[in-house]
Amino acid sequence: MDITNYVVLAAVLFAIGATTVLLRRNAIVVFMGVELMLNATNLAFVTFARMHGDVTGQVLAFFVMVVAAAEVVVGLAIIVTIFRTRRSASVDDVNLLKG
Amino acid sequence: MTEFVAPEIDWLALAPLIVVLGAGVVGVLVEAFVPAKARRVTQIVLTLAALAGGFGFIAVLWPQIVAQPVQVVGGSVTLTPFALGAQGIIAVLAFLGVLVVADRTSTGQDSFAPTASAVPGTSYEDLARRSGLEQTEIYPLLLFAAGGMMLFASTDDLIVMFIALEVLSLPLYVLCATARRRRLLSQEAAAKYFLLGAFASALFIFGVALIYGFAGTVRLIGTPDKPGVIGVIQSGTAPLAGMSVLLVAGVLLVTVGLLFKVGAVPFHAWTPDVYTGAPTPITGFMAACTKVAAVAALVEVLYRISIGVQAVDPEIMRQLQIVIVVVAVLTMAVGTVIGSVQTDVKRLLAYSSIAHAGFLLVGVAGFNPQVQSSTLFYLLAYGIATIGAFGVVTLVRERRITPGSGEDNGPVGDDGVVLGEATEIAQWAGLGRKAPWLTGAFALFLLSMAGIPLTAGFIAKFGAFSGAVSGGLWWLAVLGVLASVVAVAFYLRLLVVMVFQRAQDEPETSQVEPVETGGSTTGGGSTSEGATATLTKTQVTTAQRVVVTVVRSRGPAAVAIAVCAIATVILGVFPSPVLDLVEQASKFVP
C-alpha cells in the first residue's frame, strides 16, 4: 500500500478532530476532538519519519504524547471543577462572560 | 554503530532558563517541605530572586551574545540578540507582575481562592476561607509560565517551541481558575482559555508535522553539519521538495497557532473573556508576558522562514505577507472599534491589548529585519503600561457598608466589607478625588497605550509604524495611525470618567436587587411588586450599600505601579539608552 495514504488518513483524522472541536457542545467531547487532532499529528509524524528513513519524527511523536498527557491532567481538572459547580459540562451553559 | 558523543553544552547561555525553571521546581518542593506559615514568604522571595537572577544572567550574557549569537544543544536554544532581548523583557515584566500578585493589600487577602478546587458557595469553601488557607502554588506556576515564555522566545527548534508553548500555557490555564471572587467567571475563563488554547496548539503541532514532512527537519536554521528548513529550501534538497503545499500549509498552521497566543483577530475570541475572568494580577502578568513571548516567537519564525523562501519562491513570501497584513488590519479594527463600546475596565484593557497586537503586527508585516528592534521596544512599553494598569485595577474595590454598624469609618479587614474589584467603568467616576496618585499613574498608562508623546507608547508606535513604512507598506502605517486615533478616544473616555465625573455614591442595596423600584417600577402594578417596593423603601435606612473604595497596597503592588509609571515616563522622555540597547538586537540568524 502506498505510504502517502497514511498522510491522507492523518489529515482526515485531523479534520474530524477540528470539526469536533468547532461543532460539539460538550466540553469533554470538545476535548476529545483536541486529542484526536494530536493523535492525527502523531500519525503524520511517524509516516513522514518512515518516508524520510529518519527517526526524528518518531521521537517527536513521543514528545507530542507527553504533552497530550499533560494537557489531559490540566484540562480534565478544569472541566471537572466546572462540572461540580454547575452540574453541566456543556460549553453553551458556560456563558457568563459575554460582549 | 556510531559511538555516543556527549553533547557540548554552553551552560552559561542556558543559565537564565535554568535559574527560572529550576526555581519553579524548588517552589514545588517548598510546598511539600516548608511549614504552612512560612510558605508564602519563602515562595515570594524565591520567585522574585529567581526572576532577578535570570535577568542578571541575561545582562551578563548580553555583550557576548551581541558579539556572537550561540546555538546551544544543537540549536534547541538559539540565543540571538533578539531572543535574549525578549528573554530580558519577559524577566523584567514577570518580576513586576509577581510584585502585583504578591500584594495582599490592606484587606489582608490576595486575589486568589483559599482552595481553588472547592466548589463555590459550599461550607467547605467557607471553612477554607475562615481557617486562612492560601494557595501558594501560584508562585511556582508563575515561574514555570515565565520560564516557558523565555524558552518560547529563544528557540530554533519547532518541537522545543511547541513544548515551551505548553509549559507556558498549562500553568496559565490553572492560574486563570484561581480567583478569590467571582469564581464562576474565573472557572469559565479557564475552561474557555484551555479549550481554545489546546485547539491552537494542536493546529501548531500539525503545522510542525507538515513542515517536517516537507523538509525532514524541524529546525529552522539548523547547524552547519545539519541544515535546517532554511538551508534545505535554499539548496533544494528537501525530501519532498516537489510538494511545497506541505510547506505552505505547515507555515500557515504554525502562524495561526502563534497568532492565537498573540491574540490577533480572528483568533482573539478568548482574549476578552479570559482577561475579564482571570484574577486581575494574573491578567496583568499574562497580558504582558505572553504577548512578549508570542510576538517574539512569531517574528523569529516568520523572519527565518522568509530568509529561506524569499530567494527560492517570492510568490509564497508575498502570500505570507498578505496574510500578516490582513490579520494586522482586522486586529486593529476589531480591537479599537469593539473596545470603544466596552463598559468594563478589564474588558476595555483586553480589547486594547488586541489593538496593540494589531499595531505590533503592522511593524512585523514590513518584513524588514533591521527594524525589529522597535518591536522589542514596543513590547517593553506595552508590557510596562499593561502590568501597571492591571495593578491599579486590583486596588479599586467595591465596599459594602451597613449604616449604623459603624463600619463607615471602621477597619476594612473583614471579608464581608471589602468586596471584589469595581470593574464597571461607571464605578470609576470620581476616582481622581479618592486616589489622586493612583489615578495619575493609571492616566499615565492609558496615555502611553494611546501613544501620546512624552510617554513610552509614542516612541514605540513610531517605531512600529516606521517598520511598516520601511517595508513599503506606508498605507498600512496610515491605517495604524487612524486606528490609534480611535483608540485614543476610548482611553480618553475612561480618563474623563475618572477625573471629571462625580462619584455616584448614593445609596444602593446589594441585598435587594430592585432598589430604586420604589419610583421606577414601570406601571407593573401587580400587588406583589408593589409590596416588594414598599418593603425596600422601609428597609432603606438599614440597607447595605456598595461604594467604590481604593484599598491601600501593602507595598509590592505600589512599588510595581510606581516603577511602571516612572519607566513609562523615562522611556518616553529619554528613550535613547534603551533604544540603543535594543538596536543591537535586530539579528535573527547566528
Automatic annotation (TrEMBL), chain A:
Catalytic activity: a quinone + NADH + 5 H(+)(in) = a quinol + NAD(+) + 4 H(+)(out)
Highest taxon, organism lineage: Bacteria
Role description: NDH-1 shuttles electrons from NADH, via FMN and iron-sulfur (Fe-S) centers, to quinones in the respiratory chain. The immediate electron acceptor for the enzyme in this species is believed to be a menaquinone. Couples the redox reaction to proton translocation (for every two electrons transferred, four hydrogen ions are translocated across the cytoplasmic membrane), and thus conserves the redox energy in a proton gradient.
Subcellular location: Cell membrane; Membrane
EC supergroup of this enzyme: translocase
Single GO MF annotation: quinone binding
Keywords in alphabetical order: Cell membrane, Membrane, NAD, Quinone, Translocase, Transmembrane, Transmembrane helix, Transport
Pfam families found in the cross-reference section: Oxidored_q2
Gene Ontology CC: NADH dehydrogenase complex; plasma membrane
Subunit structure: NDH-1 is composed of 14 different subunits. Subunits NuoA, H, J, K, L, M, N constitute the membrane sector of the complex.
Annotated family: Belongs to the complex I subunit 4L family.
InterPro entries named in the record: NADH_UbQ_OxRdtase_chain4L/K, NUOK/Mnh_C1-like
GO terms (BP aspect): ATP synthesis coupled electron transport
Protein name: NADH-quinone oxidoreductase subunit K
Protein topology in the membrane: Multi-pass membrane protein
Name of the gene encoding the protein in the UniProt record: nuoK
EC number: 7.1.1.-
Membrane-spanning intervals of the chain: 6-23, 28-48, 60-83
